[in-house]
Amino acid sequence: MHATAAVDDLLDERSLSKLRWRCRRGLLENDLFIERFFARHAHQLTVRQADALGQLMELSDNDLLDLLLGRKPPEGAIDRDDVTQVLALLRAARSTPSPEESA
Question: Would you tell me the crossing angle of helices 47-57 and 81-95 to the nearest 10 degrees?
């Protein structure tokens, strides 16, 4: 996805915009998790985290929702530390309001 960037570099604006577009989902529940995630973490996302999020976006909406709600653990190709880290950030976005929401 990001061949020239080091995996721990911050994501540039163009890549962030593409990632946001790629993360659009068909289920409102998934979109809510993802919108809150971007509200909190968009400007500190690394290339590695963006790639992990991209892996999660390869899943069907129902499989993604099962992961977000903790109904099942990551398995197979997504059972990796970087994916687990992003999944934890997505789940945390569910439980705490963003600064914009609490104002």
Answer: 80
Residue 23: which of 89, 79, 72 has the closest Cα?
89
What letter does residue 25 receive in the DSSP assignment? -
Is 60 exceeded by the pLDDT of residue 86? yes
CB distance 7 to 51 below 8 Å: yes
Domain count, the chain: 1
Side chain identity, residue 58: E
CATH number at residue 67: 1.10.150.250
C-alpha span between 62 and 18 (Å, rounded):
23
Q: Tell whether 3 is covered by a domain.
A: no
pLDDT class of 94 with cuts at 50, 70, 90: confident
